[in-house]
Amino acid sequence: MKKSFAIFIIVSLMLGSFLSVHPDKNGRMSYNSYSLEKEILYLLREEQFELLGNEGSVLDSNKIIYDVNNKEYTLSNVIKEGGRIIIRYSELNCNVCIDSLFSCIDNHLNKKEKQQIHILASYHNRNDLLIFKRINNLSYPIYRIDSLGISLENLNEPFIFVLNKDYSISHLFIPHKERPQDTRRYLNIVLSYIETMHL
After folding, report:
1. At the top level of its lineage, which domain of life is listed (predicted)?
2. pLDDT tens, 139-186?
3. Run of H or E residues at 159
């Protein structure tokens, strides 16, 4: 499964490179038209490189996190076994993107599948987290964290990954609100992967 996921990312990179340059009506290669599409493809390629660069990173199992009541835990206190889907976001990320992600998850996963999800969020004010949790009716375990210590956080976008039993991260994914079908497909892939881990 990891191999096919890596192949998917590599093919996406190659496709993005191919599509960023195209012939104009005279058959010459054009760099001036479709500037918006080129910019989007550039950003997507940058995301793919960040995903590849962070795949396999190992998190500190003693990292301090806080629940919504401000009780202190370590990552290993909370996530004791591998095969958990982690949603990582910050209050500074695009709010519409975050709302879209949770809406997609709520509509696509059943109750049992949702039990695989944990949220690691960054908030300066605990009350803001409580308000967000209440407004969005989140039933997932949610914890405040300052940083995971990976470069992907610098993109300032919410992302998802699988946390394995050795606290390595795999199956990194950046959801886009314009393409919820990609998020649904991703969730199907990682749920299948997690199911094989627990056999």
Report:
1. Bacteria
2. 899 999 999 999 889 888 899 999 999 999 999 999 988 889 999 999
3. strand 159-163
